[in-house]
Amino acid sequence: DPARHRRLFFALWPTDQFRAEIETATHAIALASGGRLIPARNLHVTLLFLGEVPAENFDVVQQAAAPLAGSPAFELSFDGVEAWGRRLLCLTSSTPPAAAIDLATRLRAHLSNFVREDEREFRPHITLARDLPRSRPTQKIEVLRQQVNDFALVESVRDARGSQYSVLNRWPLER
Ligand code: 2AM
């Protein structure tokens, strides 16, 4: 019963201004990829994907994340557009800060009851397009920087227009 489940993930949610900067810097590359473009309002960095969570676990999920409030803030700087196989076209960073990786790792540990084991290491990225007709070489772009001062719990609702994301809660990071 979908009403009893919520599709949830933790994310770094960019400012409107940063999403506009990303779109300006990457729109032509994303179009040329031939993939399905992610609309600017949906651009984000997934920290931890939970998937379908039973509605009664919603409070427990939030309580599990709360101790990570006050973790160190950091700056993300994105400088490449990479195809990950033919599945994703991503905005990536050649210098992911340790504080971002620590935050994702600690979230995974605190929420281990809600996630499947996943041995892939976390690589911060922003998906720009999906389902590419062919893989593509990495393109360097002008560096796009965003200071990150909080992390968010986000709900994904899928309808005829695609995915609609709502930020449900935010926790501050310490500068
Ligand atoms: P992606 O952009 O790297 O594909 C909402 O669906 C967000 O959760 C997306 O940004 C997506 O990351 C991520 N996501 C969706 N399904 C996932 C899965 N099975 N494992 C990990 N992340 C997933």
UniProtKB/TrEMBL annotation:
The active site is at H44, H125. Belongs to the 2H phosphoesterase superfamily. ThpR family. Its EC number is 3.1.4.58. The keyword Membrane does not apply. It catalyses: a 3'-end 2',3'-cyclophospho-ribonucleotide-RNA + H2O = a 3'-end 2'-phospho-ribonucleotide-RNA + H(+). A motif (HXTX 2) lies at residues 125-128. This is RNA 2',3'-cyclic phosphodiesterase. Hydrolyzes RNA 2',3'-cyclic phosphodiester to an RNA 2'-phosphomonoester. Transmembrane segments: none annotated. It comes from Steroidobacter gossypii. A motif (HXTX 1) lies at residues 44-47. Keywords: Hydrolase.
